C-alpha cells in the first residue's frame, strides 16, 4: 500500500530535480554555485532561528527572499499531514 506513494515520490524527484529535457531549464546538477550558496543561507536562516539565537554563522540574505522561502516551506509543511 505504501509502495505506490514511494514510487511516485521517486519519479517526481527525478523529473523535477534530475531530468534534463522533460521540463524547461537546467536540472539541479547544472545550477550555479551561487544558487546553492543562497539555498544554504536561506536554510540556515529558516524562520530566523539562527539570527534570533545570535549564532555567529547566520548569513545575511535579502529579507524578501527569506520571507518567500519561509512562506513556501510553511505552505508545503501544511500538506505533509496528507502523506
The number of E-state strands comes to 0
Helix share, percent? 55-70%
Number of helices: 4
The whole-number mean of residue pLDDT values reads: 87
Major sheet: size, sense and barrel closure? Answer: none
* Shape call: extended
Which regions contain 5 or more consecutive residues with pLDDT less than 50? Answer: none
Measured on Cα atoms, how large is the radius of gyration?
16 Å
Order of helices and strands: HHHH
Which structural class fits the helix and strand makeup?
Answer: mainly alpha
The N- to C-terminal Cα distance equals: 12 Å
Strand content: under 5%
Task: Write a concise keyword list for the protein shown above.
83 residues, 4 helices, mainly alpha
Layout: helices, strands, pairs:
Blueprint: H1 3-18, H2 33-44, H3 49-53, H4 63-78
Give a verbal description of the structure.
This protein is mainly α and 83 residues long. The protein is 59% helix and 0% strand. The chain has helices at residues 3-18, 33-44, 49-53, 63-78. The longest helix is centred in the first third of the chain and has 16 residues, at 3-18. It is extended and about 45 Å long. The mean pLDDT is 87.
Short characterization:
The chain has helices spanning 3-18, 33-44, 49-53, 63-78.
